[in-house]
Amino acid sequence: MKTFATLCVAALMGGVVSQAQADDYPSRDITDVVTWSAGGGTDVSNRVVAAEMAKFLPVRINVVNKPGGVAGSIGMSYAHSQPADGYTLVGVADSNTTSAVMGGWDQTFKEWYPFLIGGSPDLISVTADSPYKTLTDLIEAAKANPGSVKASAGGSGSIHHINLLALEKGTGASFNFIPYPGSAPAQNAAMTGEVTAVVTSLAEQLQLLRAGKIRPLAMLVEDSVSVDGIGDIPSGFGDYPGLSEYLPIQQTLGIAIRSDAPDDVKATLSEAFGKAMETDAVKKWAEENFYVLSGKTGEEAQKEYLKLESVFSWALHDLGAAKIDPATLGIAKP
Amino acid sequence: MNFLSDFGVFGQTILSMLSDPLTVVLLMGSSFLGIVFGALPGLTATLGVALLTTLTYSMNLETALVSLISMYVGAVYGGSYPSILINIPGTAAAAATAMDGYPMARRGEGGRALGLTTTASFIGTIVGMLALVAFAPLISDAALQFTSYEFFLLAFFGIIISGTLTSKDLVYKGWIAGLLGLALACIGRDRLQFFPRFTFDQSQLDGGIEVVPVLIGAFALPQIIKTLRDRMSLGKPQDIKRMLPEFGAIVRNFKNIVRSALLGIGIGAVPGVGEDIAGWVSYGTAKNSHSNPENFGKGEPAGIIASETANNACIGGALIPLVTLGIPGSPPAVMLLGALMLHGLTPGPMISITNPNFLVQLTAIMVLASLAMWINGMFLAKHVVKVLRVPASVFLPIVAVMSVIGSYALGLSIFNLYLMVPVGIVAYLLGEMDYPISPLVIGVILGPMADENLRRALMVSEGSVAGFFERPVAVILIIAIVLTILSQLPAWQRAKGKIWAKLARRRTDAVEAGGGK
Questions:
Q1: For the whole model, what pTM was predicted?
Q2: ipTM confidence
Q3: Rounded to whole angstroms, what are the CA distances from A27 to A21, A51, A90?
Q4: Which of residues 329-358 of B touch A (CB under 8 A)?
């Protein structure tokens, strides 16, 4: 009887304590597991934003890297195996959404509650001495003689490849796509003239554009962009309004927690994230590196990732690269 | 004027770093850690730089760079230790060093070999640094003219030349081993269209064959089996009486050093091609242009000097496109770029405006890193040689365990062990039949590059091979490949002998005729 009473008191106290802990979130340091290696876009954006978020929280956020697996699957599996208490965050990029169809893990992005940092917009550029001065020149040449213009865009199925495919659909042009293992070799190929055109992000092309090694033709987003030392890069949507049907599909870097985390944890983190995105440090970083900030959280942010997951998964499926049928994972067609 | 102010910054950077005890500790510590990373099979320069990138995030840029560059320089150098002492290269970059380093150690000249390696690595790093300061834009422009054609030919040249260098009896055996390596490299999903090749529906094979387990399996296992089987001792330990570098050997090899350093810088500057290829190509060139090529592979110091100068000169080379255009020239330089961006510094054409002192600081750090490597090396060489006193029956089982850990540590995958053991057994059997193993490993390393670029080149040209003969660098590489193959054929050697003899006769005739006048 006495034991029972003690147990009851203990249980009650335990309940109170755990309640208090939940209210106190966060009471210990938070770990942000970045699924890509140190120094990449996902890593740098996570470190910059996490450092600012910590200023609005009573604890620190330690950023660690767990790269590897298929499209960041090792880091995602690890973060997913931790308790849904908000003490483990995960740093993800758009390409993490391909992990499921590529056989990296057996979950979809519905598992994550994301905080969307943003990304650098894609643009199309050409070899510096190529005859094409505007997007119209290039598109008309590709239309007049389909497959005659060689274009690179990172690897098959990368976000840049999907942008190139969307450009083809939106303009009716047809390029000869030459695959490279990543953005850097794809850009080098445009520089040497092995391919004529290249689609990658502005942040990635910036140094080559400034050195005059490649010439920018058009942004693949609605707005034109002005860059120091290069000038205005017009939007491709002006000449080809049909593009708006397929674009923009933008790089999407973010931080996420498990979607089954408690609501108050989500609220606390959302608030800190929102404040961090408004700080000068984050804004300055974004401006210098030509990132477009988002700041979306929760369902709104999840919708963006699920859209990317659908576009990517089915594009990879159509390319014959996906190992797992997106339909079996419950990923809807775009 | 400009030069003077640059020199001022250079001196200032060095002085300010050396006056801070913490920086000095970090410099020596990172360099030492780098050597350890290089020396342990399975741990590489790339991995070391990646690891330190995370650890140095909170430091200021300059201190972080000291640590990262010292690690890079140390790791490229450290791979030569196990190459020389036990014939198991610590990294692929040091595989060519084993060719002559190990025979020297067997002869009781292990200490001398390590000393030469240390000095050659030091000179290589410094010459690479000089090229970075003096000719960065020029070299960067040339290296970035490499297209798929040249990448394919360079990879193919690497395989062909490694085949000729390492066969004891028949040159064809080297090439057969190289082609076996190429075939192994074809396993996995192809990188252009994701088509699964030789994967037998095993998902672990999808990503292709990892280089590290193959490297460890092919070099370490046969060596361990052979040594234990024959109850051999590892090598004769030697007392090092002289700690100073051999100035005589350096002066005699002046041409060799200059050529090796230039090859290293050039190969380093080409994006995606790194220290491993530099070591081989330089070794091959040194052998073919040496007056006694038959001494190579039997403990010829010139061979060690060639490969070690080149792989360290590669570092400066790899930094050239990184600094000028933000394009890293080698795998560890990719990690270095990441680290710089973490510190809010983006290398590229604007860097001379945004951070005017960056290049000078970088070179100052490289000088310090190579000094740290040299001091650590000279100190270590003396003690590391003592390893050879440990009985083989104790030491090699330890090496075996380390090899297993090294293979497993990469991606923590048990599948790497399933790969390492059969590769090791096949390599042992091939070795028993006098097939050289190095070309097989080089084939696995260069295979994906050769395969992917050949197919891409043909995609770009829509199936025409004319492109290979229209580009100057491609033509030079083709000539080099053809000459390398021809020079190994007995018929060609006989013909060459005859031509030389005829020429010599004519000359003597001419001299006699001249004398008769």
A1: 0.81
A2: 0.79
A3: 7, 17, 19
A4: 335, 337-342, 344, 346-350
